[in-house]
What we know:
β14 and β15 form a beta hairpin. By secondary structure, the chain is of the alpha/beta class. α2 packs across α7 and α11 packs parallel to α13 (422-431). Helix content is 34%, strand content 26%. It binds guanosine-5'-diphosphate and magnesium ion. Magnesium ion (MG) binds next to α1.
Amino acid sequence: EEEKPKELRSPICVVLGHVDAGKTKLLDKIRQTNVQEGEAGGITQQIGATYFPIDAIQQKAEKLALDSGFEFKVPGLLIIDTPGHESFSNLRSRGSSLCNIAILVVDILSGLEAQTRESIGLLRQRKTPFVVALNKVDRLYGWKSTPGGAIRDSFAIQPKSTMQEFDDRLRRVMGQLAEEGLNSKMYYENESFARNVSIVPTSAMTGEGIPDLLYLVLKLTQERMTKNLMYLSEIEATVLEVKVVEGLGTTVDVILSNGILKEGDRIVLCGMSGPIVTSIRALLTPQPMREIRVKSPYVHHKQVKAAMGVKISANNLDGAIAGSRLLVVGPDDDEDELREEVMEDLAQLMASIDRSGVGVCVQASTLGSLEALMTYLKQMKIPVSGFNLGTVHKKDVTRASVMLERSREYAQILAFDVKVDREAELEADSLGVRIFKADVIYHLFDAFKQYMDGILE
Ligand code: GDP
Ligand code: MG
C-alpha cells in the first residue's frame, strides 16, 4: 500500500533579548510592512503568536534567497509574540526545546545586557540554535537609510565614518559574545553555523536587514531541522498561559508545536494539585482585524494544525499550570499513564528539593521559569526547601517562616516574576521572613548573595 505524502509543519521561532532592545518593534515591522504593502496576506494573529505564511516571507527575502539558490519548503513560520523568558522557558519538552530557532535581539548601542546574557544561558540549556539581530543600526551617526532594504545594500551607501562606528560597535559585541564563550560572525561570512553564531544587523525602525533576518531564520530551520521534525506527527503542545475569560471561564492558551488538535479531544494537563483530564469544548483564535463587526472576539476551529497558537475552552481548567505539557488521549492510550506522564515535570522539581528540609522557598510564574530558577540555584549551591507557582500569598510566607526556627538565614522567599500580595508582605514583615523579588534570575541571586554575605560578616 502506498503511503500518503505527509504534510509539512511550520517551524517555531521565539524572540529574546534585553528590555528595549527592539523585540516588539521588530515583530511589528515584519507584520506591518507586509500588511501595508499589500503583500501576500494570510498573516494571522494567533494566541501568543503570529503566523507568517511562506509567501509573505518569500517576498521579503526573495532577493537573498535567489542569490544563494535557496528553496523555501516549510509552509510558514510561527513567531512567538509574547517575547520574554517565561514563554521561552515554557516551550520545552523533557528539557529540550519545542522552539526550533530563536532571534536574540541586541541593541547595537548598548551591547550585551543582563537579560541578553540570561537569554544566552537559556538558549544554551535548551540547545536552541539562534541568530543575533544587531538592532537599531539606524541610530548610528550619519546613517543613510533604505527602508526595507537588504543590509549589504545599505552598507554600500554609508559614509565612511558611519561604517567605522558600525565596525567598532560590532567588534565590541563580538568581544562580549566571546566572553560568553560564543564565536560569532557576520551572517554572510559565516561558513559554519555549528561553530559560529550569525549576526544580522537590523533596524526595526527602517526595516533594513529584515529581509536578511527572515532569509537566515528560514535557511537555518530548514537545514538544522531533521526530516522528522519537518512533518506533522504526534501531538506536542504546551500551555503558555492560564486565563479567565468572560463568558468562557478559565481557558488555557496553548502553543501547538506538532500534530493536529481537534474539538472534542480528551486532554490531560498538569495541575498544582494533580492531573486535569477534560475535553476540548472550543478551539479559538482571535478574529481577523477586519471582522470587528462580529460579536465574538474569537474564531472557532474544528481542528488546528501545527504550528499554531490557540486558546482552549474546556471544563475544569482552574488549577492548570502555565508551562504544563498538554497530552491528548488517543484510542490506544491508557489514560492513567498519561495522567502520570503529565505530572512528571512537577514531580522532578519536587525531587530536586533539598532532603534535609533546610533551604529557601522559591516562587515563580510558570513551570518553565520555576525550572530555570531551580536549575540556577542548584548551580549556585543554594538549597531549596519548597516552591510554589503564582502570586506569593500569606500561606507561602507561613511556610517559609518554618525556617526561622531551623536555620534562620534561609527564612526567605525568592520570588521570580510574580506579585506579592499585601497580606503576604505584612505577614513577612511581622514574622521576619525576607522576600526577594526580581524579574531577572541574576538579580535575585545577587540580592540573596549580598544578604548572606551581610549575615556572615
Ligand atoms: P522590547 O522591550 O525589546 O520589546 O523593545 P521595543 O520594541 O519596545 O523597543 C524599545 C524602544 O526602542 C522603542 O521606543 C522603539 O521604538 C525603539 N526601537 C526599537 N527598535 C529600534 C530600531 O531599530 N531603531 C530605532 N531608532 N529605535 C528602535
Ligand atoms: Mg516588548
